[in-house]
Specification:
Elements: E1 7-9, H1 15-25, E2 30-31, E3 44-45, E4 47-51, H2 58-76, E5 82-83, E6 86-91, E7 96-100, E8 115-122, E9 129-131, E10 134-137, E11 147-148, H3 151-154, E12 161-165, E13 169-172, E14 175-178, E15 180-188
Antiparallel strand pairs: 1-12, 2-4, 3-7, 4-6, 5-15, 6-15, 7-13, 8-12, 8-15, 9-14, 10-11, 10-13
């Protein structure tokens, strides 16, 4: 088994590609809900929509899925067999997603599958927002509290792709200025 904390690919989508995804993602936005054993916890405040197969941007979404599948196999030895619908996320000032993992069986929309890999693709320019940092807690990292805001992730540019195992504890800190937009994918093996 191969092991990597996270994968970072800068400029995976161009500015134009990001704009196309934003146009599609802005359709049907709603408040995000997190279900945990029948309760809705207050660990998340963001807007979401879903981009399904066959959308106007199908080719871009296929490029995203194909890259996540390839990197998951190469760096983690994880052969993904399915992916959930891609989620568009919009964080306005004050919005956040507290500490969580993506791997719980009960949150997958694919019956009998567990999320193995997570991916986030940043659609906003780093000039459009402040805060909204993706942070992870990783074992044995060089940090007093094991919380990592990877330097390359913290200084991300529009089109940045970040891939990591779904069982990694992570959060998106509150946006303090502007709007952060991204898409998220969960892969199952």
């Amino acid at each position: 088994m191969r092991l990597s904390n996270y994968i970072f690919i800068e400029n995976f989508f161009s500015k134009d590609e990001c704009e196309k995804v934003i146009q599609e993602g802005e359709k049907n936005l709603q408040d995000a809900l997190v279900q945990q054993r029948g309760k809705v916890p207050t660990i998340r405040d963001t807007k979401v929509s879903f981009i399904y197969s066959g959308s106007n941007i199908h080719d871009l979404m296929q490029k995203f899925v194909d890259q996540v599948i390839a990197e998951s196999s190469h760096f983690y030895g994880c052969n993904l067999k399915d992916c959930e619908a891609i989620q568009y996320t919009k964080y306005e000032k004050g919005m956040f997603y507290g500490w969580h993992t993506d791997s719980a069986l009960e949150i997958s929309d694919l019956k009998n599958n567990v999320r193995d890999m997570s991916a986030s693709l940043i659609l906003s320019s780093d000039q459009e927002y402040e805060g909204g940092s993706l942070q992870m807690i990783l074992n044995n990292c060089i940090s007093k509290d094991n919380i990592v805001t990877p330097h390359d992730v913290q200084n991300q540019k529009q089109g940045t792709l970040i891939i990591f195992p779904s069982n990694v504890l992570h959060q998106v800190t509150p946006v303090t200025l502007g709007i952060r937009k991204s898409i998220v994918l969960w892969g199952c093996s």
